[in-house]
Each structure stands twice: as structure tokens, then as C-alpha cells.
Amino acid sequence: MVGVKKKMVTLVSSDGVEFVVEKRVAEQSLFIKNALNEGGVEEKVMIPIPKVTSDTLSSVLEYCEKHASATEFQENEIEEWDKEYIEKADLDLLYYLLQASYSMSIMGLMELGAKKVASLIRGKSPQEIRELFNIKNDFTPEQEEEIRREMQWNYE
Amino acid sequence: MKSSASDSVIPPMDPHGALFLVLGYLRLRELLAFQSVCSLFRDAIAEDHLLWMRITVEPPLSGRLTDDILLKLTSKYGGALKSLALLDCRKITDAGLLQVVERNPTITELYILGSTYLTADGVVRVVQRLTECKGKLKRLRLRGLCNISKDHLDRLNYFLGTNDHPQCSKSSIYNYWKSLPFDDNDDRPLDLDICPKCNNARLVFDCTRDNCRGCFFCIRRCEECGCCIDFEELGEETIYNHLLCIDCWLQLPKCCECNRPYCKGHINFNGECSSALFLCDQCREDDESPTNDIM
């Protein structure tokens, strides 16, 4: 073998798909980093990632891969990459990415997703937000009236 | 962006769990809009006191913010406000702000940027009241407050306890300060200082070239590197009419029509890449608009 053998870990998605990645990539997730430290195990580590499907995990790992080698890039290069990365996610993937980054403790991805959502709703009215995210308006007429009075200044 | 949820025929339902994770990242305007979307959001936002500990009111909300509404917003979580930023809140008065701090003596950061009704006397009273309430105001930013005198500044420094701890030695550099976020990492308690040249209370900048120190009005500075600009050097301007020193001007890529550069802060803003050939926004607009020359 030539060169130093890279330390690999195996991540298992909720639907049972195995992803073999470099340790430094997986460690972008604090959850995995802590799991690896606690275990103190070296070779052939299998880490189950509950509640994260293989589709989502592969997208999350794409992010981790890029950010694990972030030092090789310039700051605005990473920013550009982040922008494109989150731009191509549809709403469902965005939801899954948010939940996955929360459960796996990947703060950078979490923030990226949250800012994307914030940009989607910027300047939108509550009704437009409901339509965007397919949310049911469950207020009673009385509550609606109360909210209207309370929030009037927001939409003048 | 294509929304797969609304494409399908799924009837409207409760919000996706992931959306609750973004609440902490929303600005005030979006947070208020979310509150009016459905009862789950409404309850979650009302109950999460962390969301109401730091309040930033910025345009377009600021113009509509009155004393009453500010008081309501800041009372949402029983007076545990930590940071209040009022950006261009024209309608807020001295009395209104005083009421807010009286109910929220926990405020540690207060940013007042651009205001019409707030006076220097009023702000001094606000800070004095916070001191009397044993508050722990650590950071005060008053950029844009009118008619603030040396006497006001002395009193503010007294209440902030700045006199006991000499101003930190970190220099304050001019470059890009206009596009800097208001909550910069500057650790000085107060952003204003006495300009050694004109003796007024203003934002005072240190030079990156020699030891000169002065306010915006007394010393012209380069937008790019923050050094002072001699009168002989004057005349080099960026596309946004910011001044540049000759060294910075030479280094920056320039518009191929008007030969003026963007300063670095604006390159990022406009997404103009570092390619040597580009057309600035203004020249592009001029090109696109129909000309009447031929007529």
C-alpha cells in the first residue's frame, strides 16, 4: 500500500444503506464525533444514523465532504458552493436536511438550511407562507380577529 | 425553487416539524408573520423566550414601530430582554424607550442607529436609569444620534463605567464601516468618541498609514484600506462614490466603460467576479436605457 491509510467509518442510514466515509468527513457531525470519542474504537466502526434516510444522508455527506476540506478553498469559494448546494434542494429535501443536521449536530448545515427557509418567506404574508409550506389555517374567527388587531402595524 | 409539497394534491396540514427548527434564525418580521400562520407556530413562538431576548427592529418594520408596539414586543417575556436594536425607528421617543428599559433592566446591549425623536438627553436618561436599576449595560451604539455633545458623552461613559477601565487599545478602522453589521465584534462599550481634531462626539477612526485619528468630517479616508487621503490624492472614486487612496485604486479591477472600481465590500454585494473585464451596474443601466441622442 502506498501512503497513509485513511481512517474510515461506516454510517448506516435509517433504511439500512451503508456509507463508508473518511473519519474527518464524518466528524463534521458533532454527534458522530462524540460517538467516535466515546467508543474509543478504531477500525471498522459502524454508526447507525437513526431517522435519516439514505437519500438525505448522501446529501448531508456531500456537504460534510466539502466542508471537511474547507481549508483547501477560499472562503468565498465555500460560500458559493454552499449557495448552490442549498439552492438545488427542493422543499422536502430542505426539511430532511434541517432535521438531519439537527439530529446529527451539524451546525453549519443547520444554519444554511434555516437561512434558506428564511429567504423563502422574506416579505411574505401569513397566507402566502401557508401556501408555500402547505399549512392549514386552524385559527378560529375570534383568534383571527385578535391576530389581525395585534399584527396590523406589521402590514400597514 | 420548486415546491414539491404544493405541487401535489395533499390537503393543507400542520407545519412540518423541520420548520420549528428555523424559528431562531428568523428576523422579527418573519417571526411575526410565522406567528400568524397557525396555532402551533403561534404557541411555539410565544413560549420560546429565547426568541424574545434579542430584538432587532429594522426596515421596513422600523418606520411603523411606535412606542406602544415596542413596549408590547419587549414585554413578551416578562422583562428579560438582553439586546435591543432599533435601526431607523423614527417614531420611537425618549419616553417610550425609557419605559422599555424600566421594564427590562436586564438589557446588556442597546443599539440606536438613526432616529429622529430620540435625543441625546433622552438616551443619557435611559442609560442612567439602567444604572440605577443595577442593570449591566455593556454595549451602547449610538451611531446616527443627533446633537450629542462632549458632556453627554462624559455622562454616558460615567454610567457605563468606561472611565474606570480605559478604552481598549484596539484601533477603529474606517474601511467598509458603512456596510458592517451594527453588532460588530468591537468590544468597546460605546462607539462614539471625541474627535481630537474638531472636539465633537462622533465615530472616530484610526489611520492604517500613520498615527492620525479623526472623525469622518475631519479626515477623508480610503474606503478600501482605511488610510487617510491627502488632498493631492483626492479624486479617485469607486462606482459608489466612495473615496480610494491611489494604491488601492490601482489594484482594483475597474469597469471597462467608466474606469471606476467597486470597492471590495461592494464586489461581494454585487456578485461581480474578479474578472478583469466587467461592466458596472450604472454603466449597464445607462446602456440598457434607451438613449435620445440620435433624435
From TrEMBL, chain A:
<dbReference type="InterPro" id="IPR016897">
    <property type="entry name" value="SKP1"/>
</dbReference>
<comment type="function">
    <text>Involved in ubiquitination and subsequent proteasomal degradation of target proteins. Together with CUL1, RBX1 and a F-box protein, it forms a SCF E3 ubiquitin ligase complex. The functional specificity of this complex depends on the type of F-box protein. In the SCF complex, it serves as an adapter that links the F-box protein to CUL1.</text>
</comment>
<keyword id="KW-0833">Ubl conjugation pathway</keyword>
<dbReference type="InterPro" id="IPR001232">
    <property type="entry name" value="SKP1-like"/>
</dbReference>
<feature type="domain" description="SKP1 component POZ">
    <location>
        <begin position="7"/>
        <end position="68"/>
    </location>
</feature>
<comment type="subunit">
    <text>Part of a SCF (SKP1-cullin-F-box) protein ligase complex.</text>
</comment>
<feature type="domain" description="SKP1 component dimerisation">
    <location>
        <begin position="108"/>
        <end position="153"/>
    </location>
</feature>
<dbReference type="InterPro" id="IPR011333">
    <property type="entry name" value="SKP1/BTB/POZ_sf"/>
</dbReference>
<dbReference type="InterPro" id="IPR036296">
    <property type="entry name" value="SKP1-like_dim_sf"/>
</dbReference>
<dbReference type="GO" id="GO:0006511">
    <property type="term" value="P:ubiquitin-dependent protein catabolic process"/>
</dbReference>
<dbReference type="GO" id="GO:0009867">
    <property type="term" value="P:jasmonic acid mediated signaling pathway"/>
</dbReference>
<dbReference type="InterPro" id="IPR016072">
    <property type="entry name" value="Skp1_comp_dimer"/>
</dbReference>
<dbReference type="Pfam" id="PF03931">
    <property type="entry name" value="Skp1_POZ"/>
</dbReference>
<dbReference type="InterPro" id="IPR016073">
    <property type="entry name" value="Skp1_comp_POZ"/>
</dbReference>
<comment type="pathway">
    <text>Protein modification; protein ubiquitination.</text>
</comment>
<comment type="similarity">
    <text>Belongs to the SKP1 family.</text>
</comment>
<protein>
    <recommendedName>
        <fullName>SKP1-like protein</fullName>
    </recommendedName>
</protein>
<dbReference type="GO" id="GO:0016567">
    <property type="term" value="P:protein ubiquitination"/>
</dbReference>
<dbReference type="Pfam" id="PF01466">
    <property type="entry name" value="Skp1"/>
</dbReference>
From TrEMBL, chain B:
<dbReference type="Pfam" id="PF12937">
    <property type="entry name" value="F-box-like"/>
</dbReference>
<feature type="domain" description="F-box">
    <location>
        <begin position="15"/>
        <end position="56"/>
    </location>
</feature>
<dbReference type="InterPro" id="IPR032675">
    <property type="entry name" value="LRR_dom_sf"/>
</dbReference>
<protein>
    <recommendedName>
        <fullName>F-box domain-containing protein</fullName>
    </recommendedName>
</protein>
<dbReference type="InterPro" id="IPR036047">
    <property type="entry name" value="F-box-like_dom_sf"/>
</dbReference>
<dbReference type="InterPro" id="IPR017900">
    <property type="entry name" value="4Fe4S_Fe_S_CS"/>
</dbReference>
<dbReference type="InterPro" id="IPR001810">
    <property type="entry name" value="F-box_dom"/>
</dbReference>
